[in-house]
From TrEMBL:
InterPro entries: Glyco_trans_2-like, Glycosyltransf_2, Nucleotide-diphossugar_trans
Annotated keywords: Transferase
The protein's name: Glycosyltransferase
Lineage of source species: Bacteria, Bacillati, Actinomycetota, Actinomycetes, Bifidobacteriales
Annotated region described as Disordered, given as residue ranges: 363-392
All copies of domain Glycosyltransferase 2-like, residue ranges: 5-131
GO MF term set: transferase activity
CDD domains listed in its UniProt record: Glyco_tranf_GTA_type (cd00761)
Superkingdom, natural source: Bacteria
C-alpha cells in the first residue's frame, strides 16, 4: 500500500490554514500524515494549527518549524525531507483539495511504477465560473506547461513526488536565494534531468485562491519573469510554448473581477472555502450513498432549504468546480415551481439557500468537520482493482 504525505509550507496563514487542513483530512483515503511547516510566521498560524491538533487528536497532523531561513524553498525542502510517506504531496496553505485527491494521487503512482512526479489542474474557488476555469486551466496545463518536447512540468500548488525521486534530487534543486525562479518548475527540470517521468492527471484536482491576482501589474510581471529565469538556469532544457502568454491575457480580467467578487461574498457573508468544503463533502456522501445527516450543519440545511431533502440533493450534486452561485442553485431548488411564479420563487430560494449555507458554515466552523481516524497503514492497495479505479 502506498502512503501519501501532504506537506503544507505556511507563512502568516492564520486565516486559511484551518480550511486547508479540513480538506486535506476529510478524504476518501486518509493521508498518512499532513505536515504543516511554519516559516517564521508573525501572525497566529502556529497557534491555530496547535489548537486544531488539540481539537482533532486523532488526525495525523504534524507541525514543524523551519526557522533557519526565510523562504518557500527551504521550508518546502524541510517538509519534504521530514515526510515518511511513499508519495509526497505538496500544496499551498490556501489550497482546497478534492475529497478524492489522496486516493487519486496514490492510484497514479500505483498504476504507473515509472511515474516519479504528478500534477493536475487547478481552479479558483473564490471566483465565479469555476467549471469554465477548470476546463481552461486543464487545457493550458496540458498544452503549455511542458518542456523538452512535451514532458510534464509540475505545479507547486498541486503536485506529488515519489519519495525516492525527491531524495534523489533533494541535494541538487536550486536554492534560488535571489527568489527569481519558479521553484516547482525547477524541481520538475531536475527530475527530467535525471530521466524521471512526470505525469499529468485531470482527476488530480485542487482549488486555489485567486488572491495572487489581486496584485499590481508590476508584481504580476515580475512573477511571469520567473518562467524565463528558471529555464535560463537550466540551459539544457527547452520549451516551445510559453504559458506566461496565456496568463498575461488572463490577468486583466481576473485582477478586475477578484475584488468585485470578494465584495459580493462579504456582502452575503459567504466563506468560499467553507462553502466548497460542505458542497464537496455533500457531493461525496451522495455519490457513495452515505447519509447526509453525518455532515456538520446538514440539519440546518434540511430545515431551511425550501424543498428540504430535494434541495439538499441539488446542493450536493454541485461540487467545488461547478458554477454553483446562488442563482444556479436556486434554479435547481425551484425546478418544480409553476412558470408564472418561477422568478419570485428563484429569488426566495436564493435567499433561503444562502441563509442555509451560512448557517451550515457556522456549524462546520463551530463543530469542525468529521475527520476519520487515522490508521498506520491507510493507503491504496497496489492492486489491479485500485489502479483501475484511479485510471484517467
Amino acid at each position: 500500500m502506498l502512503k501519501v504525505s501532504i506537506i503544507i509550507p505556511a507563512w502568516n496563514e492564520q486565516d486559511r490554514i484551518t480550511d486547508c487542513l479540513d480538506n486535506a483530512l476529510r478524504q476518501t483515503v486518509t493521508p498518512h500524515e499532513v505536515i504543516v511547516v511554519d516559516n517564521r510566521s508573525t501572525d497566529d498560524t502556529v497557534a491555530v494549527v496547535e489548537r486544531y491538533m488539540r481539537e482533532h487528536p486523532q488526525a495525523p497532523v504534524k507541525l514543524l518549524h523551519q526557522d533557519e531561513e526565510q523562504g518557500l524553498i527551504p521550508t518546502r525542502n524541510f517538509g519534504l525531507n521530514a515526510a515518511t510517506g511513499d508519495v509526497l504531496g505538496r500544496v499551498d496553505a490556501d489550497c482546497m483539495l478534492k475529497p478524492d485527491w489522496v486516493e487519486v494521487v496514490a492510484g497514479i503512482f500505483t498504476e504507473d511504477r515509472d511515474a516519479m512526479g504528478a500534477t493536475g489542474p487547478v481552479t479558483y474557488y473564490d471566483m465565479p465560473a469555476r467549471r469554465i476555469a477548470l476546463r481552461g486551466d486543464d487545457s493550458v496545463r496540458r498544452h503549455t506547461f511542458r518542456a523538452d518536447g512535451g514532458k510534464v512540468l509540475l505545479f507547486g500548488s498541486n503536485m506529488a513526488l515519489r519519495a525516492s525521486a525527491w531524495h534523489e534530487v533533494a541535494g541538487e534543486v536550486c536554492r534560488d536565494r535571489e527568489d527569481v525562479m519558479h521553484e516547482d518548475i525547477d524541481v520538475s527540470l531536475h527530475l527530467l534531468g535525471r530521466g524521471f517521468k512526470t505525469v499529468y492527471s485531470e482527476r488530480m484536482i485542487c482549488g486555489i485562491s485567486a488572491r495572487r491576482m489581486d496584485t499590481s501589474f508590476k508584481s504580476f510581471r515580475n512573477y511571469m519573469k520567473r518562467f524565463k529565469n528558471t529555464f535560463e538556469a537550466h540551459p539544457q532544457h527547452w520549451r516551445t510554448r510559453k504559458s506566461e502568454r496565456t496568463l498575461y491575457l488572463m490577468y486583466p480580467w481576473l485582477h478586475a473581477l477578484f475584488p468585485v467578487y470578494q465584495q459580493y461574498l462579504e456582502s452575503r457573508e459567504i466563506n468560499p472555502a467553507l462553502r466548497i468544503w460542505f458542497r464537496e463533502q455533500a457531493k461525496l456522501a451522495r455519490a457513495q450513498g452515505d447519509p447526509l445527516d453525518d455532515l456538520p450543519g446538514i440539519d440546518v440545511l434540511v430545515t431551511e432549504t425550501p424543498t428540504g431533502v430535494d434541495g439538499i440533493d441539488e446542493i450536493s450534486s454541485s461540487g467545488m468546480f461547478d458554477d454553483d452561485d446562488d442563482a444556479h442553485v436556486a434554479d435547481g431548488l425551484t425546478a418544480e415551481t409553476p412558470a408564472a411564479a418561477a422568478e419570485d420563487a428563484r429569488d426566495g430560494a436564493a435567499d433561503a439557500e444562502h441563509d442555509a449555507i451560512v448557517a451550515a458554515e457556522e456549524a462546520v466552523a463551530s463543530n469542525g468537520p468529521a475527520i476519520p481516524p487515522a490508521t498506520s497503514d491507510q493507503g491504496v492497495d497496489a492492486s489491479a482493482e485500485s489502479a483501475s479505479a484511479a485510471k484517467e
